[in-house]
Amino acid sequence: MAMRILCLGAALFFPLFSLQAAPVEAVVKAVQGRVEACPAGGTFAPLKAGARLSSGTRIRTDGSGRAILLVTPGAAACLEKGTSVRLEHLEFSRTADGVARRKALLNLRSGTVLSLIDRKNPNVTDFVVRTPQGADAVPGAFYRVTVRGGKTHVRTTAGQADAAARAELKKAIKS
Predict the structure, then answer these.
(1) Residue 71: other Cβ atoms inside 10 A
(2) What is the pTM of this model?
């Protein structure tokens, strides 16, 4: 009898763990020019499309470098030339009904990050770009965050120059 109660208790308790968000790795979808990554405690090495990056990884692009990342399922980022960013925290969970939680924290030290977040589940998305001046979270949107000369600039409207990046980010989210 005690064994049945224990098994029943375990059967009711363990599904709760499946609802918790779990760490997820970002996937590099495209690289142009010189882009390097440094895992936590590691050294910088050239970054290639298809690489998987965990929380704590630092990424830098030079004056010709650019990278497209699928940060979590449904959230993509484009690291423009001259960018230095750290993937502080990445997590994702899904239930039978769909996305339960999507969380990403990018620490932008310099340069530009363009982000696109799938609008289907804005209430489960916590996508933040932290800069030296603070943090910016715009769920379900396409936006650009730039750190230049110690100042942060945020733009949520896409100009003509951002159209190609937006298309690449949409493609990364769908793949």
Answers:
(1) 28
(2) 0.80
